[in-house]
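agent> fetching stored inputs for the zinc ion docking request
agent> found them:
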Amino acid sequence: MLVRTVRVIPLTIALVVSLTLAGCSRSPSDTTTANSPANVILIIGDGMDQQQLTIARNYLAGSQDKLLVDTLPSLSSVRVQTLEANNPQQFDYVADSANTATTLATGVLTSQGRISRDAGGLVSLPTIVEHAQAAGYRTGIVTTSSVTDATPAAFASHSRHRKCGGPRNLAKPLRRFLSVIDCGDEAIDRGGPGSIAHQMVNSGLEVLMGGGKQKLSQPGYGGEDSPLASAERNGYQLITTPAELDAVGTDKPLLGLFAAGHLPVQMIGAGQRRAEHVDLEGDKPSLAGEVFSCVQNPAASSVPTLGAMTDKALAMLGDDPQRGFFLMIESASIDKQSHARQPCGHIGEVQQLEQALRSSLDYAANHPNTLILVTADHAHAAQIIPDQEQFERGGMVFHSPGSVARVRTPEGSVMMVNYATTTLPYEMHTGTNVPLYAGGPGVEKLPVYLTQADIYTLMASFLGLAELNQAPGSGR
Ligand SMILES: [Zn+2]
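agent> prediction call returned; pasting tokens
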């Protein structure tokens, strides 16, 4: 009954991808095809659709140059698919990070909020991290969010809801708008796998880095230890500062927790400026028409860059000539900053993704059996609209019904960024396709249209895990 609720991926497209890369399938110790083991580096820009990328490209590269990601040899358009929680036969047209990361990690469609569980929330779906480990690969996750956030969580844990992050979340139901999220049944003493934090440090990942100190240092609940105590027992080296990251050796598993929650972003608007609503009738003069620039965030000096974390992860996972690896790298706050109407924060996060990509390409230059994929989980709110001042000069006065930011780019022009998905204090995700940029063996044969489940198939096929797609509960 429960298994029937798992949406089966259309095999036609999955097969095309699988067959396309059949000649590229590897094993962790394959020395016959390219004299080195296979590696997959999956880089996820959370919320990074082409609008968010274009905003960052205009700022970071200017109108005549391109981003590093633009130099990859393959670009496909990826369909984002989401099931309705109460009726998994129906589709939602807007996703969240939990259901989309689940599809990328397992190849199975599900509903919003689920962490590698089916749309009903009870069937756990085997992840590519679990499959890769079973086949002998090394595994790692690096993110600028808390390591318990939805995207990293879906690759190495299972939960009915993304809010079941720390032990305390299991102790008390959480009221959210009109619904209640009860994580109690996830507790180990009630037959569950424990909190997401508990599962992450017991998942066999050799590298786990990001934020999340607050949840991981909570005392245990419901049959689990404090996640930090579990991590220590599992032999992790705990590091919490950029200097410790630089100095740490790569001979033992690595747990990097650099902030209580998510990592601070690298860039902010000068004077803390963000997009604002144009208020023509309010008492206070609106700042919405004033241009501002992006500046370095002073708080970012307390945390390592995503590039530095990626360098360490690759030094650790990538030094074994006998075993390949799977590494997921997430630039998480493209999403969080777009929710908050902060274009500079989101631009800085794309810059971080570019640095992680630079590290990955440098690694792949010496390890050609490396598949590099850069994609997003879902689309987001920000869009570029005409700068109203140019129209005002011609006598046409108008304003956006949403919130706007007029950002001065380094090349001297003004980029008007608009947010208008809600009247709430934060923006919502949007529902367009996301890109898949790819580099590595065989990518020139990738179809122009893919689904997120196809990306799972692509990665599993490259690592030679295709047969494991048939595991019970995967719906394949
Ligand atoms: Zn979001």
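agent> quick read of the result: Residues 343-366 form the longest helix (24 residues).
agent> awaiting further instructions
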